[in-house]
Each structure stands twice: as structure tokens, then as C-alpha cells.
Amino acid sequence: MWGMYTSRTKLWLVQENREPQTFSLKFKRAEDYPIDLYYLMDLSYSMKDDLENVKSLGTALMTEMEKITSDFRIGFGSFVEKTVMPYISTTPAKLRNPCTGDQNCTTPFSYRNVLNLTSEGNRFNELVGAQQISGNLDSPEGGFDAIMQVAVCGFGWCLLYIYAPSRNKQIGWRNVTRLLVFSTDAGFHFAGDGKLGGIVLPNDGRCHLENNLYAMSHYYDYPSIAHLVQKLSENNIQTIFAVTEEFQAVYKELKNLIPKSAVGTLSANSSNVIQLIIDAYNSLSSEVILENSKLPKGVTINYKSYCKNGVNGTGESGRKCSNISIGDEVKFEISVTANECPKKGQNETIKIKPLGFTEEVEINLQFICECQCQNEGEANSPDCHEGNGTFECGACRCNEGRIGRLCECSTDEVNSEDMDAYCRRENSTEICSNNGECICGQCVCKKRENTNEVYSGKYCECDNFNCDRSNGLICGGNGICKCRVCECYPNYTGSACDCSLDTTTCMASNGQICNGRGTCECGTCNCTDPKFQGPTCEMCQTCLGVCAEHKDCVQCRAFEKGEKKETCSQDCGYFNMTLVESRDKLPQPNQPDPLSHCKEKDVDDCWFYFTYSVNSNNEPIVHVVDTPECPTGPDIIPIVAGVVAGIVLIGLALLLIWKLLMIIHDRREFAKFEKEKMNAKWDTQENPIYKSPINNFKNPNYGRKAGL
């Protein structure tokens, strides 16, 4: 993964003048670096659907990782929980099948190594496909036990039951990039939780695998987070926590405690696990963080980084570089300083390596504790308080029994109670505030491992490193720590100089600080008017606007009328008012102060005009036109005459329309009658019911002869 150009160096450290020795390390990200990946999965019942997707992970992940490296191996392990109450149910039936209903689950176990690291993806699919879900009682799982065993069971023999060696086949970590993927949907138990099950013996950090099962889960407590960090770092294992959204916050906090670790969001059924692993690997491999072995007493080390794109870092930031691509080279300057000489003058060794990788630099330290000028010293020199020492290399080396910068005190005086009294503060029993030694009645303050951290003061009561911090920096990086109190740079205040006096962030859109409705405190608006809120106090859900808000007060003060006429002096004295003759005399928008032009109606339905503004002293200023514009009253007679005339005209128009319609209707009826008359046909035959009024009768005797 990383190419290291310097592997061993020798430094000569001069103690007398504390001269730092500096050397450089260069790192370059290598291509096609071998990778070992061990997939550690929670097999409690809630991960049932996840197991189905992981069964085909081997070949699929092999295919994806071939794009990164040609030498990739994968292994698999699983965990559930300690096999004691109250973590699992210990009834015989539940030990055989801890799941409820018709679910067929395997016997609970703490940790099982299913597959050693192998390059056979099909073998991974085959063995993982044969796994079964198990179950437990509580929500947190025993994942820390599993992580510990994965970290320490990589090589060599396995220690079983404390001292009995067992030749179990190990996980098989190689001396390459080592990734541990920890997959779960629950929290974790840690050191101390074992007491619930009567387990009080601390975890010993050793391998206890028997037949690929963790055999001492009932004997040793869970490991602590610090213990895990130590073992993961010792074995150069980088951890990827693949957890569900619900536990993201928990594992992100854990990530901050474990160097070279990453957290990814696991979908509900682990369908995105391959992409999660690829993304986490790219994130981890693009960052290098240097760590060193324990420093010898009196030796300090400082780092300075020269990273990509001209990004440099010092202090703790000087230990790392980020966003490094394949082929990129970064440089570190490392300074080592000896503040005192080791006992017996023996040489020391420091090892420096990048976290998560096995490459390291070994530094051999050889101390120079005496200078050549010591051979030219003047014994019993008068410069050393009446000859009580040897003056050499510009300083006094005191004779036995004498002490002090100029050998002015005897060791008897140093230990006397009277001398100690000069080194105690008033009403205090602490000598030199416990931060120094009393020598000849004067405090000589201790030196700290970090030479930039200094005790000072007559009684060593002051220091420059115990001031309040903000964002992890002393005085927030915006001040100087003097005697445990921050002296802030200009434009900053507060106990940790974390309060900016810059009001730019408080400026509202109208140019006022906090919209004139609050105070700017540490670059943030504190709205004093409860109706207003937001970053600049401009948001108001119930406000009527500037004009409507001040209308009543302007009306009562300018014209002595309105709703606030009776309480005007009490409620409306908060602004300065000026009367002007006309609207043209009102202030115009080109003035420096923010301005609002208002037009409102008074109680008499007259319009009055005013402006509202706030000056640089945050004082409201109101200008009012002294004469309202009232509309003239209506002329009644023309209105009445017009209304009457209108009614008459409308009546006449309606009559004319009615008359016209009647004429049209009559004409249509007459025309219809004439048409029907013309079309009528009269029958000339005799009426069958007609009876003539004339009757003819014949006398039967008419025409007979007279003789008869």
C-alpha cells in the first residue's frame, strides 16, 4: 500500500542545549498492493435477511476487488453473544433452538471462525451458505469478543484455557493490508457488562479458539475499547463498521476512538455491502497517519507534514495526510529533542510507522551529554558564588552540597522549612504550586515533555496550556494563554476566545444588525423581541409590517387621535418624530439609514404619510407629513337628482321596451289571422239539418165533382 523510502537512521542528540535533530520520511501510495479482508457478521435473528445476501458475497466481492488488487483473500466469521444468562436463555430447549415459532435456528455461540482467509470466492459462498441464524435475549451483541479474537488469532499458536497451547488453524493474516468488516444492526457490550452474567475476570487479550469457536466467553469479560484499540493497532488491522442507520451515531463515536477505522451505512438487508466496503477501503487507503513507539524519558518528538495540494500540518495535524491517490508522494519532517540524558548514558530506539501498515522506520538515538568545552572549565571559580563550583561552558557546575544557578545555596538550606516558606503562596501549603522545586527560597519550575508548554510565575502558579479550549485548540486558536487565562486577539472575546466580535454574520437584509430586533453575540443574533426569530431576527410569523406596527403611535403623537390617544405618552415615546410640510420633504431612499415609506388611514379615513428608519445608534426616527389628506364630502343634491333621474329614465326605457314588444306581438297575431282567413274554403251544399220554414199542404177534396 505504501512505499517507505527511509527505513533506518541514527541521530546524535545534544542534551546540553536541547538542539532538535530533524530528518524526513517520504511515503508513496503503491498500486496493486495485496489485501486480506475478514468479514465478521452478527448472526442474531434480526440479521436473517442480511445472511441471504452475504451468502453470495465471496465471488461478487472478488470480482470488484480485482479492479483494485490482483492479490485478494477473504475470510468469514460470525458472532452472537456470551453463552450465559442473561444474554441467552439457558433452558435446554432454547439452547437447541433459541428462536420462537417454527424458525429453525442454530445453538447460540460467542464467536465462530467459519472460513480462514482464502482466495477461493466459491469456497466462501459454500461455507457461508451453510450458516444458520441464532438468537439471544438482549439487544447489544458480543461483537467485541469476536473482534478481539480476530485480531489476536491471526498467527502462531492459540492459547486455550489460559496456558494450555492448542494447534488450531489460525485465521491466517498475512503481512499485507488487513481489513476487518464488522457487520451488525445492534449495539455492543464492553468491559464491565460481563458482571451481569457473573463474569468479572478482565479480558486477557489472547487467542482462545477451540475447534474454531471462542471457548472462554463464559470465563473472560468483554474487552474494553482501549484494549481493542491496542490489539488492532499492534496487528495493523483496519476496521470497517458496516452498521444500520439506527446505530450510525454510536459507531461514529467508536470510530473516533479507533484509529484507521471507518463507518458505513448498511441497508436493511445488506444489499449494499460490496459498495460500502469499496468506499470504506478507498477512504482508509487514501490517508496515512504516523505513530511512534513509547519515547524514552526526556525525549520529545514533533511532526510536520507536507501533504497533497500544498496542505501542511504541524502538531497532531502534522502526523497525517489525507486524500492521497495512487502514485502521490507525501513528506513528513520529524524533529527529536533530548531534554535530559538517560541514566547510564545508554542509547535508545524509537520506531515510527503508519497506522494500519507493517512498514516502519527504526531510529537509533545516541545522546551527547557532555560538551568538549567542559575540559576547559575553571575549578572553584569566583563566578560560582565564592568558588563553590566549576565554571564551564558558560555555566556553573556546583560542588557537592551546593545548588543553584550560581551555586549560591547549600543543600541544607534547600531543605529547611524557612526556605520553603518563600516558595508557598499565601494561605497555601503547596510548594511552588506542585509545579516546581524550591531552591534557595525560589521556585524553579518543572520542564514539560512538550517544550512549548511552560510553567511560570513566582510560585510556578501559571502555565500556558491550561486555558479554556474551543474546537480542540487552546484559546480557540484566537488568543494567547497567559497564566491560565486567554488573552484574545482583536475582534475576539470570551474565556476561550471563541466569541467573535465581527457583526457581519448578524447583518440583516435591511442593513441593520439583527434587524434592530436583537443583539449580536459572538457572531450570532440573540433576538430580544420574542416575535422575531431566525439567524438575523427577520422572521416573524405574526407581524403586520413596519408601517402597520407603528401606525397607531405615529397617529397619536402627530395628530393626537387614534386607538392609543389615551396611552400615547406611555406607549409611544420610543422614537424621535419630526413633522414636515409635504410628502416631498420626507427623507428619500438614497439616505444611508434603512428607510420605510408608509401610507396609512387614520380614524377619520384620512390618509397620512410617514417614514420609519433606524440610525447608526439603533435609534428609531420618524418623519410625518403634518397635514393628512382627507377626501371631500359628497354633494347630496346632484346625487339624489341623479338617482331620481336614473330611476325615471330606467322606468321609461322599460315602458318603451314593453310597448314595443306588445306592438310586435299584435302585428304577428293579426298577420296570422289574415293568413288563416285567406286559406278558408266554404262548403256550398245544402245544410242537412236545414229545415225550410214553408210547409205545403194539399186539400184532398180539391178537384172532386160536386155531385159527389
Automatic annotation (TrEMBL):
<dbReference type="GO" id="GO:0007517">
    <property type="term" value="P:muscle organ development"/>
</dbReference>
<keyword id="KW-0460">Magnesium</keyword>
<keyword id="KW-0245">EGF-like domain</keyword>
<feature type="domain" description="Integrin beta subunit cytoplasmic">
    <location>
        <begin position="659"/>
        <end position="705"/>
    </location>
</feature>
<dbReference type="GO" id="GO:0033627">
    <property type="term" value="P:cell adhesion mediated by integrin"/>
</dbReference>
<keyword id="KW-1133">Transmembrane helix</keyword>
<keyword id="KW-0130">Cell adhesion</keyword>
<feature type="disulfide bond">
    <location>
        <begin position="522"/>
        <end position="568"/>
    </location>
</feature>
<dbReference type="GO" id="GO:0042470">
    <property type="term" value="C:melanosome"/>
</dbReference>
<feature type="disulfide bond">
    <location>
        <begin position="409"/>
        <end position="423"/>
    </location>
</feature>
<keyword id="KW-0472">Membrane</keyword>
<feature type="disulfide bond">
    <location>
        <begin position="527"/>
        <end position="537"/>
    </location>
</feature>
<keyword id="KW-0812">Transmembrane</keyword>
<dbReference type="GO" id="GO:0098639">
    <property type="term" value="F:collagen binding involved in cell-matrix adhesion"/>
</dbReference>
<dbReference type="InterPro" id="IPR015812">
    <property type="entry name" value="Integrin_bsu"/>
</dbReference>
<dbReference type="InterPro" id="IPR057243">
    <property type="entry name" value="Integrin_I-EGF_CS"/>
</dbReference>
<keyword id="KW-0677">Repeat</keyword>
<feature type="disulfide bond">
    <location>
        <begin position="488"/>
        <end position="497"/>
    </location>
</feature>
<dbReference type="GO" id="GO:0045202">
    <property type="term" value="C:synapse"/>
</dbReference>
<dbReference type="Pfam" id="PF23105">
    <property type="entry name" value="EGF_integrin"/>
</dbReference>
<keyword id="KW-0517">Myogenesis</keyword>
<keyword id="KW-0401">Integrin</keyword>
<dbReference type="GO" id="GO:0005925">
    <property type="term" value="C:focal adhesion"/>
</dbReference>
<keyword id="KW-1015">Disulfide bond</keyword>
<dbReference type="GO" id="GO:0007229">
    <property type="term" value="P:integrin-mediated signaling pathway"/>
</dbReference>
<keyword id="KW-0479">Metal-binding</keyword>
<dbReference type="InterPro" id="IPR057073">
    <property type="entry name" value="EGF_integrin_2"/>
</dbReference>
<dbReference type="Pfam" id="PF00362">
    <property type="entry name" value="Integrin_beta"/>
</dbReference>
<feature type="transmembrane region" description="Helical">
    <location>
        <begin position="636"/>
        <end position="658"/>
    </location>
</feature>
<dbReference type="Pfam" id="PF08725">
    <property type="entry name" value="Integrin_b_cyt"/>
</dbReference>
<dbReference type="Pfam" id="PF18372">
    <property type="entry name" value="I-EGF_1"/>
</dbReference>
<feature type="disulfide bond">
    <location>
        <begin position="540"/>
        <end position="543"/>
    </location>
</feature>
<dbReference type="InterPro" id="IPR013111">
    <property type="entry name" value="EGF_extracell"/>
</dbReference>
<keyword id="KW-0732">Signal</keyword>
<feature type="disulfide bond">
    <location>
        <begin position="572"/>
        <end position="606"/>
    </location>
</feature>
<keyword id="KW-0325">Glycoprotein</keyword>
<keyword id="KW-0675">Receptor</keyword>
<feature type="disulfide bond">
    <location>
        <begin position="153"/>
        <end position="207"/>
    </location>
</feature>
<dbReference type="Pfam" id="PF07965">
    <property type="entry name" value="Integrin_B_tail"/>
</dbReference>
<feature type="disulfide bond">
    <location>
        <begin position="520"/>
        <end position="525"/>
    </location>
</feature>
<dbReference type="InterPro" id="IPR002369">
    <property type="entry name" value="Integrin_bsu_VWA"/>
</dbReference>
<dbReference type="GO" id="GO:0019901">
    <property type="term" value="F:protein kinase binding"/>
</dbReference>
